[in-house]
Amino acid sequence: MAAPELTARLERVVDHGPETRSFFLRLAAPLAFRPGQFISCLLHVAGERLTRPYSIASSPEEADCLELVVDRVPGGPGSHYLFALAVGATIHFTGPWGTFILDQAPPGETVFIADGSGIAPIRPMLRRALVGAPKHPLRLLHAGIDASTPLFREEMVRLSRSAPCFTVDYADSRALLEEVRRRWVESDADRGRHFFICGVGAIVPTLRDVLRQAGYARRAVQYEKW
Ligand SMILES: Cc1cc2nc3c(=O)[nH]c(=O)nc-3n(C[C@H](O)[C@H](O)[C@H](O)COP(=O)(O)OP(=O)(O)OC[C@H]3O[C@@H](n4cnc5c(N)ncnc54)[C@H](O)[C@@H]3O)c2cc1C
């Protein structure tokens, strides 16, 4: 059976830079979803219907307005279509989908690794993990090419100030693999950590493999590659 098609109204946009934009979608009815999931946008581009998944960057507690964070990909028809939409436009989608999910803080130190806008699904996961009094450390390593303006930096720094168990660090995307090796492979023999990794392209499976080959359990290294 085909997934039911839902609609939302583009209520507002916020630019994070020339090529990255938040889209706030007002839903006709609240959408139940889990931190980390995505929706599949059905985009009518030049007579064709394209399906493009976008992670939900907002929290399930705000169930009638979703935030998506979208990069405009050079030559990419789906992202260019979204960037051309005017406030008030209708967006068709299905979902929520996905198994890259965090419902509660895992039973051990947890490391979130985001490359660029890969912070989108990790943001609601982190917010959820911070609910209550987490017993184990939570760490975010957020990489970007321009480390001076990472997405949601202010929010993450604020969260780290209010929750002593949470630390956030920034890295250059080009040095992400070395950073991960240095911090969580070479620094100690602890292999009880949990990882959630998200980003674009080959870096994601590369990080997954490095961690699993270093001795972390398969199921303790969750990832989503765009
Ligand atoms: C589960 C899932 C969740 C996703 N969530 C998001 C999201 O929250 N925000 C988002 O911007 N994209 C997200 N994407 C990627 C998105 O679905 C599209 O692939 C992207 O918008 C490019 O589509 P396009 O039609 O513009 O370009 P296409 O012509 O389809 O371009 C595809 C190329 O763009 C690369 N690419 C994909 N995403 C990005 C990106 N964000 N930045 C730079 N290059 C990229 C791909 O690796 C591929 O090489 C997600 C993908 C998946 C599988």
Summary of the model, kept short:
22% of the residues lie in helices and 36% in strands. It has 226 residues and is an alpha/beta fold. A hairpin with a 2-residue loop joins strand 3 and strand 4.
Number of strands: 11
How far apart are the termini? 26 Å
Q: How much strand content do the residues show?
A: 35-45%
Radius of gyration: 18 Å
Task: Describe the overall structure.
The model has no long low-confidence stretch (mean pLDDT 96). The relative contact order is 0.15. With 226 residues, the protein is α/β, with parallel strands linked by helices. The protein is 22% helix and 36% strand. The protein starts with 5 loop residues before the first strand and ends with a strand. It is globular, with a radius of gyration of 18 Å. The strands form 2 sheets. The chain has a 6-stranded antiparallel beta sheet with strand order 4-3-6-1-2-5, with helices on one face. It has a 5-stranded parallel beta sheet with strand order 9-8-7-10-11, with helices on both faces. Flavin-adenine dinucleotide binds at residues 38, 52-55, 68-71, 73, 76-79, 98, 117, 120, 200-201, 224, 226. Residues 38, 52-55, 68-71, 73, 76-79, 98, 117, 120, 200-201, 224, 226 line the site of flavin-adenine dinucleotide.
